Amino acid sequence: MKSSTHPQNTYIGGHVERVEDYRFLRGEGQYLDDISRPGQWHAAFLRSSLAHGTIRKIDASAALAMPGVHAVMTAADIEGNIPTIPFRRPNPTIGPYAQPIIAREKVRYFGEPIAMVLADTAELAEDALQHVVVEIDALPAVIERVHAMSDAVLIFEDTKTNIPTVFNAEKGDIEAAFAGAHYVIRDQFATQRQTALPMETRGLLAEWDAQLGQLTVSGAAKLPFFNRTTMANMMNLPEEAVDYIELDVGGGFGARGEFYPEDYLLALGARKFNRPIKWIEDRREHLMAIGHSREASCDVELAFSKEGVILGMRGDLYINIGAYVRPNGMTPVRNAAQFMSGPYRIPAIDLDAHAFVSNKTPAGTYRGPGRYEGCFFIERLMDQAAGALGIDRLELRRRNLLTHEEMPYPLATVLPSDGRAETQCDSGDHREPFETVVKESNWAEKAHLQGQLIDGRYHGMAIGSFIEGGASGPQENVRMQLEADGIVSLYAGSSAIGQGLETVLAQIAADYLELPMERIRVFHGSTTYLKQGWGSYGSRATVMGGNAVIDAAKKLLGEFRLHAAKRLGLAPEELTITEGVARAADGRSVPLVEVAKDGINVDGFFKNQTPTYTYGSAFAHVAVDPGTGHIEILDYVVADDVGRIINSMTLHGQVMGAAVQGFGSVFSEELVYNDEGQLLVGSLADYLIPLATDYPVVRCISLENYPSPTNPLGAKGAGEGGIIPVGGVVANAVANALSSLGVQPKILPLSPSRVWELIEDARARA
Amino acid sequence: MKVDFEVNGRAVSVDVTPRMTLADCLRHELNLTGTHIGCEHGVCGACTVIVNGDAVRSCLMLAVQAKGAEVTTVEGLSLEEGLTPLQEAFKRHHGLQCGFCTPGMLTTLHALLSEEPEASEERIRDVISGNLCRCTGYIPIIEAAMDARAAYQQARGDK
Q1: Is the same domain home to A210 and A271?
Q2: Whether A384 and A533 share a structural domain
Q3: Is the pLDDT of residue A6 over 80?
Q4: Which of chain A's termini has less CB crowding within 10 Å, N or C?
Q5: Do residues A191 and A376 make contact, with C-beta atoms less than 8 angstroms apart?
Q6: Could you tell me if B16 and B3 are in contact, meaning their C-beta atoms sit under 8 angstroms apart?
Q7: Whether the complex's predicted ipTM surpasses the cut of 0.90
Q8: What average pLDDT is seen over chain A?
């Protein structure tokens, strides 16, 4: 462990139980559907039943005649151009691909909103949907990559291409790298379309106060402040006239809390009818309407020297972003290009990541966006290259993992820039978690199992590594207020999505104020608390919010010193402050609570445009049943270095939960479409997330050997890393298990049927 | 139509429509919002309540079917103040993150451990496999349940 210059503390780094848990465990959490307003109407959305078509007619008269139904809003209710959802990370070419908040002439995906029904109850609103008559002339559905990229059918008739942007990741002299290579491996891989699937579906409550001209939107998550600005602009309201209120949130994982079409329609309805309007998505609707992610494929090659040193990486990545560019729909695309190099030293890179539109649900982010896909691609190449080069697969990695001496290590430059072109790994030694995993997994003792058929199942193992970007900039704000009873209220711009934010921020505040955690009360996420804030995305809440808390704590203690000194008639520097008491040399003292009546209220902030890079390695030991294609995870170990651990318990929770989500990604979760663009997955009986019986063994090891130099806490983001390596590591373990058959999995998920087919095909070839 | 049953030890008489689920009745008519709805098709288990001792999906049961039944929700499992041993174990083992699936986990486990306080890890895992959690990876939930068994064993012994 490196020495630390941080103050003596008692909470940071500990296994601290969460303050949120009390209300959740007693059924006292307050989620969106737990609140209602007198006189509220419920909304239900009529969605396109076709993937691609021209709207001929919408007739809502029968629905409107139903008792309890108050209104049916369609594009006809919107004057002028239909507003589009803005981009969070604009680039020069995506403008024409923005999503109109409701379909007018054309529908471009199954599930696109066509009408909003407002009724007394949710049941009546849903009943009425069936009585809205919509006629759509079908157009050819564009579903797959080759069809989409051929531009044979243009999804946006005013554009010339179905490819809104190609991101290029570039570094070094790629031609020289490949010209001088001893060995080049080239292959194609693909990951399937998925979604984050939080347990609570989306929902919002929009309220309009006609007298004040004030819009209140409850149910915010992820980035309430950005969404407030967006909503204010779209509604032609000053920003102060819009409040976003955060409640408890049943999971986010990147998908919840982005600005969706429904958000605007609900607000519009609330203002038009001067009624509170509530909407809760049902699960089928959720699967077709929330952001999808991960549908990526590639044709890439890696060049090696004779000694197994990577010389260069080049190729093409193809990401199916669905029908429109959503607010952060391009993030997985650019990330795949920038982060495919992962933890490896690659001096020359030339990758083109092609984003193409299709007639599927628009994509957004899901935990570890682009990184999970890229890690799968490169780890599959690495393992195959090891075999071809005749170098041990662990040794090959050791020769290419980044070391402490190389930090900060620049990654490829990605253009066109969406504000994040240049970035560098901030600190660390990637060999450390790797060797930790080698040791903890007992690799040496188990190596003889590799590829063996034992009791009817093939055993295989693999280790892979990853990097996780965190601390998305530019800033986070907090406010601290000393209350009359000596409690410190902490208002944070970060939002809570189930990750334990209240606990983590309270720990940091308590340590830096030298107060017990019980004296810190955390309020977060709502735009009413602060003039400006950012939120929780890109593994940023602890780093950005936590460092803002430190700034505020220092300022609050500064104020305390001034006010206490005034009371004692001394100069501020004559006082010593410890544990909430200011003491003078003569023995007199002033407790913090005493200056509360002076109205102490401070703003803290942390500005940072430099991401942090948590990094780590993971091990998987699998047993493959060749008769059924079923794969069991016998052991899984993941180690990561997060710079500085704030709460070891919540950190493990993040890593373990992410790893198990990753198993869902590898084995069972898939948003399947048919050729007509119909989503065939409509329930949780079709979209198979992991169950308690599926993956009972996951071991997590957390390191803090290299604090981040980018922030006073030394912390790095930690919410996403656990999921990133799962695809690559498990697929390699499966390939190793089936090495005697020559099976090389290239497409995820590794469902029993796919694995069984791979085995049968291999046997047929042999 | 009127339906009379008992919720958390209290007699209730609720005016419901025939198609109203027990989940909606509990949440919206009786204001017991601790019971959560995650799928409305009986897969996720978030809405699990205890009906006459059995863990039941309240989204798959109509309110009218509860006539004469004894229903216990997560609120009914909770003490006036503080946490029960099962709730404490969840907190200690970090068996929850976003808290949305938690009420269903607690009711399912309470029904199981009340009947089978000696339940094996395998048995617990099997029973909980009907409740989806997206945050934790389940391992800490199983650990919490194993830890809470002692309190249920003790309670049985005290009877």
Answers
A1: yes
A2: no
A3: no
A4: N
A5: yes
A6: yes
A7: yes
A8: 96
CATH code for position A648:
3.30.365.10
Residues B72 and B115 both lie in one domain: no
- Produce one character per residue of A385-410: b if its CB has 16 or more CB atoms within 10 Å, e if not: bbeebebebbebbebbbbeeeebebe
How far are the Cα atoms of A310, A355, A418, A717 from residue A338, in angstroms, in the given order?
A: 17, 14, 12, 18
Q: Are residues A308 and A355 in the same domain?
A: yes
Looking at residue A9, what is its pLDDT? 66
By Cβ distance, the residue of B43, B102, B137 closest to A657 is B137
Number of structural domains (chain B) is: 2
Q: Which of B23, B48, B77 is the last residue in one of the domains? A: B77
Q: How confident is the model at residue A766 (pLDDT cuts 50, 70, 90)?
A: confident
Residues A637-661, mean pLDDT to the nearest whole number: 97
Q: Which of A17, A34, A199 to mutate to test the interface with B (most CBs of B within 10 A)?
A: A199
- Same domain, residue pair A642 and A738: yes
- Tell me if A580 is assigned to some domain: yes
Q: Which domain holds residue A123?
A: 32-139+201-249+256-289
Do B64 and B91 share a domain, yes or no? no
8 Å CB contact between B2 and B15 = yes
Q: Which residues of B touch A694 (CB under 8 A)?
A: 129
User: Are the C-beta atoms of residues A682 and A204 closer than 8 Å to each other?
Assistant: no
Distance CA(A450)–CA(A500), nearest Å, equals 40
Gap between the Cα atoms of A584 and A196, Å rounded: 56
User: Does A463 share its domain with A486?
Assistant: no
Q: Which residues does chain B have within 8 Å of residue A659's beta carbon, measured at their own beta carbons? A: 137
Same domain, B69 and B99: no
Give the nearest chain B residue to A692 (CA atoms): B129
Q: How far apart are the C-alpha atoms of A114 and B8, rounded to whole Å? A: 43
Q: What are phi and psi of A318, to 5 degrees?
A: -130, 120
Q: Which CATH number goes with the domain that contains B100?
A: 1.10.150.120
**Res. A2 pLDDT band, cuts 50 70 90:** very low
* Overall size of chain A counted in residues: 766
Residues 6+ apart with CB under 8 A from A405: none
Inside any domain, residue A643: yes
pLDDT, position A8 = 56
Chains A and B form CB pairs within 8 A to the count of 168
A313 domain residue, yes or no: yes
Chain B residues closer than 8 Å to A29 by CB: 34, 99-100
Q: Are residues A113 and A47 in the same domain?
A: yes
Is A650 in Cβ contact with B134 (below 8 Å)?
no
Interchain CB distance below 8 Å, A27 and B103: yes
- For residue B113, pLDDT beyond 90: yes
Chain B contact for A29, CB < 8 A?
yes
Helical packing angle, A371-389 and A331-339, nearest 10°: 30
Three-state secondary structure along A639-677?
A: EEECCCCCEHHHHHHHHHHHHHHHHHHHHCCCCCECCCC
CB within 8 Å: A199 and B134? yes
Task: Give residue-wise pLDDT tens across range A354-382.
Answer: 999 999 999 999 999 999 999 999 999 99
Minimal CA separation from B12 to chain A, in Å = 20
CATH of the domain at B12: 3.10.20.30
- Nearest chain B Cα distance for residue A638, angstroms: 14
Same domain, A655 and A699: yes
For the stretch A112-165, pLDDT in tens is 999 999 999 999 999 999 999 999 999 999 999 999 999 999 999 999 999 999
Instruction: Give the residue on B whose Cα is nearest the Cα of A249.
Output: B98
Question: Of B91, B94, B125, which has the smallest distance from its Cβ to A693's Cβ?
Answer: B125
Å between B40 CA and nearest CA of chain A: 7
A662 touches chain B (CB under 8 A): no
Is A200 in Cβ contact with B135 (below 8 Å)? no
Number of separate domains in chain A = 3
Q: Residue A40 is part of a domain; what is its CATH number?
A: 3.90.1170.50
Out of B19, B91, B132, closest to residue A199 by CB? B132
Which residue range forms the structural domain that includes residue B58? Answer: 2-77
CB-nearest to A656 from B41, B132, B137 is B137
Which residue is closest to B129 within chain A, CA to CA? A692
